[in-house]
Amino acid sequence: MSSKRNAPCICGSGKKFKKCCEKKRKSRSANPSDAEFNQLVSLYSLGHYAELERGSRSLIERFPDSGLTWKLLSVALLMQEKVALPAFQKAAILMPNDAQAHFNLGSVLKSLGRFEEAIACFRKALQINPTYSEALNNMGNAQNDIGKLNEAVESFGRALEITPSSEIAHNNMGVALKQFGKTDEAVESFNCALKINPNYVEAINNLGNAQIDLGKLSEAVDCFERALAIDPGNAAAYCNLGNAQVGLGELNEAVGCFRRALAIDPTFSKALNNLANAQCDLGQLGNAIESIRQALEIDPDFTAAFSSLLFLQNYSAAHVSESFLEEAHQYGRMVARKAVSPFVSWQCTVPSERLRVGVVSGDLRAHPVGYFLEGLLAQIDPTKIELIAYPTYSQFDELTDRIKPLFSSCKPLFGQSDQAAAELIHRDAVHVLIDLSGHSIHNRLPVFAWKPAPVQVSWLGYFSTTGVKEIDYLLADEVCVPEARHGDFSETIWYLPDTRLCFTPPASDFSVATLPALKNGFITFGCFQVLAKVSDDVLETWAKILSALPSARLRWQCKQFGSPDVVDKVSQRLQQHGINLERVDMYGAVSREEYLMAHAEVDMILDTFPYPGGTTTCEALWMGVPTLTLAGETLLAKQGESINTTSGLNNWVVNSTTDYIDKAVTLASDLLGLAALRSGLREKISVSPLFDSAQFARNLEDALWEMWRVHAQTKKSRDI
């Protein structure tokens, strides 16, 4: 930084000092002398910010209207991490035609999360200097932060027209496109940035994350390893590498990467959250919950981590405690606090024929939520219900393609801020808004705290209270949520007739195989659950069953068994419970078709507890395989009971581990009974409420309309 008259001006205008700021200073009578100003400039150049602050304040006492001195003071304060906003504001007021003064103020406002004010400052800078590409870049980032993705892409495009060789603008464009769900285009932008600067670590990291979204996990690993070769101390690259390894099933390696990230930056709360999810996948539930709590100690407003904490506790019997409910309410209070001005009136008029229903979900794809939805959506009467999809995740597939035409429109929420998403839904004049994620990944529960619709409902994707008081109802049935348990929820329980679930039969035409025990001469118990569901209590119970049936075998299949290290650790757990490894077959992830065919090798399913199967139980029923389930206290723990009761399999529900063991032995000893049940099970459940999508659609339509009528009547009474 120099104040020599022919040198570039310190304000960044590109003009010579004598034709820019020197001229401005001389145009004012009340400005410091050149010598005084040059002394401040020298302090800035040397990085002596404390002395620069003292010198600037001293000059301001004598020359309070010197905008350049205020500008230097603001920089001195910023570099010392002191409160600098008032100084930046003063500089911008005193220098209304100085583009950099407005740019600096906008940058500070953006760092404080005051995005709209920041955007206004950048616009002012651009009015003064339309070719100010840095202002366009920062404005695009602020627009991106508040979910104005179209405007962000436009800003970055303008920046690139001015400076096509800006790797920063190309990278920023890629970030916006990725959030838009245009991942292929984002990859092109990141590659453009890297052609300009092959060592641009941020762009390499972003390219790797885009490859993860595209399912190109090996390519993603290459990106993150490349980033780390350039910058071995890059915590974000280690965290991202861990995410890619989770996708590849390399869980122990992923845990190592998350720990490396935390060794570099112990306050990296996102790495702790990701570590917790990997630990959960490994079945290390206690460690996972501890990691999440550490993340929340660092960042108490980390909504995704808070959701992870609540979700993970569902794997444990401890989640029935009052402390769990209080933590759910705490989450609800947090998101309500962030929704600074929730809607209290709505644009939706009283419907004469059709109710407009919004569906918010990150799982409108080949996912348990998608499997339950597909058949139902096809049966919804479009003359009574207009469906609008609000996907919260950018990955789509063939199931998405099949159900998308069943919605009148599809409006993605990914990349949008909570406020922007809520405003979109509010503009759509939705009568009823349904959340299908709860505290699972890709949820947008904070949007519901803005109350964008007058009636809001939780259903399907989660099995406990959300804690969000702005969600009015939770859809349930009388089995999974008896009246005595209503106090477990912040939502009002709304009962559906028969069942809260309706499953879509798999499209694959697999016939039901004959009971394998008739050919094998021994019973094969099956389990298709992830490690986190199989607690030591479950293993102890299974061990007693296998002990009582010396010839029986256990076939356990889950995605984590693709890792030899995981298989070794699980084998040790099995042996600790006295289970002979020669009686256990472990299989890793396969396609859905192969998974369904694997039921031909299983005589009956042993359910997990307190987190039982849901989708897997329904799929097993379709393949002719019944599941023995242990009913618990909560909605989730009663899920197996609800499914079996709805299917007419009350005899396959028990209430204690002792009964579970006795019932398993009794059922497994009756091969003819199992064979007879198996041969007619698909036909039996096909006509049950669990698979009757047409009747379930009528029940759901009636419930949604009645919810609306309750709201309308309540509003009418309140208005009177």
Automatic annotation (TrEMBL):
InterPro entries: Glycosyltr_41/O-GlcNAc_trsf (IPR051939), OGT/SEC/SPY_C (IPR029489), SEC_C_motif (IPR004027), TPR-like_helical_dom_sf (IPR011990), TPR_rpt (IPR019734). SMART domains: TPR. Pathway: Protein modification; protein glycosylation. Residues 349-499, 518-700 form the O-GlcNAc transferase C-terminal domain. The keyword Repeat applies. GO terms for molecular function: protein O-acetylglucosaminyltransferase activity. The keyword Repeat applies. Its EC number is 2.4.1.255. It is an enzyme of class 2 (transferase). Keywords: Glycosyltransferase, Repeat, TPR repeat, Transferase. Signal peptide: none annotated. Belongs to the glycosyltransferase 41 family. O-GlcNAc transferase subfamily. This is protein O-GlcNAc transferase. It comes from hydrothermal vent metagenome.
